[in-house]
Amino acid sequence: MKENKLIETRLRKNDTVKVISGNSRGTVGKVLFIDRKKGKLIVEGVNIIHRHTKPSQKNPQGGIVRREAPINITNVMLMCPKTNQPTRVGAKLIKDEKTGKESRMRLSRKSGEIIIS
Question: Would the pTM count as exceeding 0.90?
Answer without folding.
Answer: no
